[in-house]
Amino acid sequence: DAGVTQSPTHLIKTRGQQVTLRCSPKSGHDTVSWYQQALGQGPQFIFQYYEEEERQRGNFPDRFSGHQFPNYSSELNVNALLLGDSALYLCASSRLAGGKGTDTQYFGPGTRLTVL
Amino acid sequence: GDSVTQMEGPVTLSEEAFLTINCTYTATGYPSLFWYVQYPGEGLQLLLKATKADDKGSNKGFEATYRKETTSFHLEKGSVQVSDSAVYFCASPSGGYNKLIFGAGTRLAVHP
């Protein structure tokens, strides 16, 4: 049973560029959440997708957008990259349970984004 | 807003020493509580969880008990190994949609 997968593993971009990160959830999971982890810090919630819609959003600007596909995979897009966007981007999947959404989140290995 | 506070690191121990990493949370409504571990250059791995008060989560010799009265979920291990060296994160859901909030992480270094 494959776990959560993310691509690419590493990415180097320059300021002002746009980037797309991809995530495939664990088998049987229908909910995908994205987190940003700056060096030496805990992960910060970006947003969560369920049924191809954004259900909740953290304190991130509109430059951060996402999408979920019918097969539950997801993309994170970041426009107009800033140096401060350099971080490890983590995808987590879970299975919505009883509408309360409290099921355990399983994380992928992350995508390391460096903005020069 | 909700928050999770865990003890600052780094924590440096000798092999076979006892480990405690403190964690307290503020979320109300009896949330599930989690400990995740991050090894160098990797993503987060679920270490253990507890879903209600007085539950004890355990895995790989690590334990944590959900204490509602003190809003705590401290991580313990009786005898650490060099392979336990990693960063440990305490986490709690916040709000109605399973958004996780994390502590700042505690780096553990175990020496032979």
Task: Explain this structure.
The complex is a heterodimer of chains A (116) and B (112). With 116 residues, chain A is an all-beta fold. Chain A contains no helices and 11 strands. Chain A has strands at 5-7, 10-13, 19-24, 31-37, 44-50, 53-57, 64-68, 74-78, 87-94, 106-107, 111-115. In chain A, strands 2, 4, 5, 6, 9, 10 and 11 form a 7-stranded mixed beta sheet that branches. In chain A, strands 1-3-8-7 form a 4-stranded antiparallel beta sheet, with no helix packed on it. The N and C termini of chain A lie far apart (37 Å). With 112 residues, chain B is an all-beta fold. In chain B, strands 2, 5, 6, 10, 11 and 12 form a 6-stranded mixed beta sheet that branches. Chain B has a 4-stranded antiparallel beta sheet with strand order 3-9-8-7, with no helix packed on it. In chain B, strand 7 and strand 8 (62-65) form a beta hairpin. The chains are: A mainly beta (116), B mainly beta (112). The A-B interface holds A 6, 31, 33, 35, 40-45, 48, 55-56, 58, 88, 90, 92, 94, 100-110 and B 31-32, 34, 36, 42-46, 49, 51, 89, 93, 95-105.
Distinctive features:
heterodimer; A: 116 residues; mainly beta; 7-stranded mixed sheet; 11 strands; globular; B: 112 residues
